[in-house]
Amino acid sequence: MKTNKDLHIISLYYTEYGYGYPEDVYDYNFKNNKGQMTYTFGCNGISPIVNVKDNEKFSKQIFEIINNWKHKYYWDYTICDGTLWYLRIRLSNGKYIRFEGHEKYPDNYKQLKGYLNRFVGKYAKEFREIYLKYV
What we know:
Layout: E1 9-18, E2 21-31, E3 34-41, E4 50-52, H1 55-66, E5 72-74, E6 83-91, E7 96-102, H2 109-133
Helix pairs in contact: 1-2
């Protein structure tokens, strides 16, 4: 993905879910020169709004992670279960880019979730611990 230095992220929506496993959602929005992210896991609620101080740095890091991604990653065979994931990014030029997959991922896929967890990781851990108490 080619980007220029003036292009940045206005919103990012990332979800990962599977059959029998609750949905994991990271939602980022940049409004009024302020970046904010929330995290949701299944029915365990939504995290408080977490401020992301530097949208330029946030955008640059995300662009580096998704730089060589294809838009679709699907398993070659028909399977009924497994993990599905979806990433939608709205850019400052008004365009959207989307990535999605089912049981197939880009090589550096874990970097995306790891980077997003820098902001909301304590909530992700807490919500998962609550969920595991009841399964």
